[in-house]
Amino acid sequence: MKAQVLITPKKGIADPQGTAVEQALHALGFADVRAVRVGKVIDLELPEGDREAALAALTHMSEQLLANTNIEQYTCMILDEDA
Amino acid sequence: MKFAVAVFPGSNCDVDAYRALHDVLGQKVEYLWHRETDLSGFDGVILPGGFSYGDYLRPGAIARFSPLMTSVMRFARDGGIVIGVCNGFQLLTEAGLLPGAFLRNRDLMFVCDTVSVRVENTDTVFTHRCQAGQVLRLPIAHGDGNYTVDPATLAGMEQRGQVILRYCSPDGTVDEAHNPNGSVANIAGIINEQGNVAGMMPHPERAVENLLGGTDGLFILQSMVHELERRQHETCRC
Questions:
Q1: Structural domain tally of chain A?
Q2: N or C: which end of chain A has fewer CB within 10 A?
Q3: Chain A within 8 Å of B105 (Cβ-Cβ)?
Q4: Which domains does chain B have, with CATH numbers?
């Protein structure tokens, strides 16, 4: 099954990239844009099976390696095949 | 007495660290490839600067799971002396041996410069050869040097004297104008609670000869060497 982990800077943690992107958007005329945060998306595939077990495994992966929970938060998702 | 210089794929200050300890300070030094696991016979470990594993995911995030790091973590927990410089500092936070984490530099620029740092605690393995408040001139070169840590942890670190180096002006004033990367409280170097593990963004190994532009790095490296010599004398009572 296809899965995705979404990693973003934790609330309250400075995000210099997000700030720079926000300023660039303002310069392009998107003056109302606020609170830009830049994160990363990790796509991966797991063997077909129990979705709950897969989500638990994704959480372990995120805690151990994929995210640094001092500065980042993560969301784990199982993607539907057609998505 | 022997030092180990860790070498990960992408390390690029390993040779500088070796030269500083071996050629300048006359110490026994060996390189240890990231697949090695045996630290027996070593008294100190240097985690050098560079871009271990290409800095993929986050600086230090993948190196932290290398076989060598598993041994370094055990070595550190047993009281062994470990210093991480630049990428080595990032790696020590990823490994949980030091608190905090690193963000991209405040201005998003890779900063390559010589900066002033003030010694904040001289009662440590890594700084006891320095004077209180001494200003060292040391090179920095990093893109992810923006040290961050939650306020409660920072307060504890400050109280225990775990902040050992702060970015400052040449006369020792710590202010935002002399903070090259946005680090919280101008932090350039810290130690763990036990005091046997240090991380610093500036490169002491690149400031060990006048030809390199200065010798202030020797204050840090000689502190470590002298401490290890002292421990050795204590052990053999000679």
A1: 1
A2: C
A3: yes
A4: 2-236 (3.40.50.880)
Closest CA to B18 of B1, B4, B8: B4
Contacts of A17 in chain B (CB under 8 A): 104, 108
What is the DSSP secondary-structure string of B116-157? EEEE---SSTTTTTSPTTPEEEEEEEESS-EEE--HHHHHHH
Residue of B nearest to A13 (CA): B148
Residue B77, C-beta contacts closer than 8 angstroms, at least 6 positions apart:
none
Q: Which residue range forms the structural domain that includes residue A48?
A: 2-79
Chain B residue with CA closest to A68: the answer is B94
Rounded CA separation A43/A59 (Å) = 14
Per-residue pLDDT of chain B (238 residues; tens, 9 = 90+): 999 999 999 999 999 999 999 999 999 999 999 999 999 999 999 999 999 999 999 999 999 999 999 999 999 999 999 999 999 999 999 999 999 999 999 999 999 999 999 999 999 999 999 999 999 999 999 999 999 999 999 999 999 999 999 999 999 999 999 999 999 999 999 999 999 999 999 999 999 999 999 999 999 999 999 999 999 888 876 6
Number of C-alpha atoms within 13 angstroms, CB side, residue B133? 3
pTM for the predicted model, two decimal places = 0.94
B13 assigned to active site: no
